[in-house]
């Protein structure tokens, strides 16, 4: 009788874990769109300083509609991931688990290797995740920028090593909005009192002798 009850209890436990396991093997769900964290029971985020994953891009700037290759490199096997492009809202702003600030900018992932698929969070194909739990290390993807300028962006990555271990908020270097001109018009007052306009790079304005920068 006792053995029968034990078997019954084990069966209930397996049934309760089955939906979560199937969900994990199919990739992240829409519930992960905002904070980019998995919904695994008792899972805990790891220290980003000890992450074994790097996230690199093929370009340091982008234009509307441009294709950018995004590469994930890891020194250890991992099972799952979630990848998005988000706007950079200020200098030094970081991604933290459960407090993700930057806004998802959209775009679409046009090249997805086997074992991955896109997810619609705000627009079609703007998020990328795994579709199986096979071990992964090095992956490359192609992201198409939105048709309108979205400002400076970063790519953000969550990597799941096991059901209980993950890193959230791994980030790429900033990819600048190439549609923004680095030049600005400034006016100077000449020695004779007249005004002249000239273009100068931002943050590099130098007054010439006898002139005042206005």
Automatic annotation (TrEMBL):
Pfam families hit by this protein: Reeler
Domain Reelin: 18-191
Keyword terms: Signal
Keyword flag Cytoplasm: no
A single GO cellular-component term on record: membrane
Residues making up the signal peptide according to the UniProt record: 1-23
Superkingdom of source: Eukaryota
Record protein name field: Reelin domain-containing protein
Organism (species): Champsocephalus esox
């Amino acid at each position: 009788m006792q053995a029968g009850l034990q078997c019954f209890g084990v069966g209930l436990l397996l049934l309760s874990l089955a939906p979560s396991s199937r969900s994990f093997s199919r990739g992240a769900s829409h519930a992960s769109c905002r904070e980019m964290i998995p919904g695994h029971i008792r899972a805990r985020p790891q220290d980003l300083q000890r992450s074994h994953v790097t996230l690199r891009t093929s370009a340091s700037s982008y234009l509307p509609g441009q294709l950018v290759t995004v590469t994930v490199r890891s020194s250890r096997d991992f099972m799952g991931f979630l990848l998005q492009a988000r706007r950079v809202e200020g200098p030094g702003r970081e991604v933290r688990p459960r407090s993700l600030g930057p806004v998802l900018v959209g775009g679409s992932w046009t090249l997805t290797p086997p074992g991955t698929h896109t997810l619609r969070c705000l627009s079609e194909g703007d998020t990328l995740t795994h579709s199986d739990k096979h071990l992964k290390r090095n992956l490359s993807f192609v992201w198409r920028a939105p048709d309108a300028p979205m400002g400076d962006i970063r790519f953000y990555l969550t990597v799941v090593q096991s059901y209980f271990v993950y890193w959230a908020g791994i980030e790429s270097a900033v990819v600048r909005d190439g549609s923004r001109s680095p030049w600005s018009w400034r006016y100077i007052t000449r020695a004779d009192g007249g005004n002249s306009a000239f273009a100068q790079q931002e943050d590099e304005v130098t007054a010439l002798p006898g002139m005042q920068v206005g």
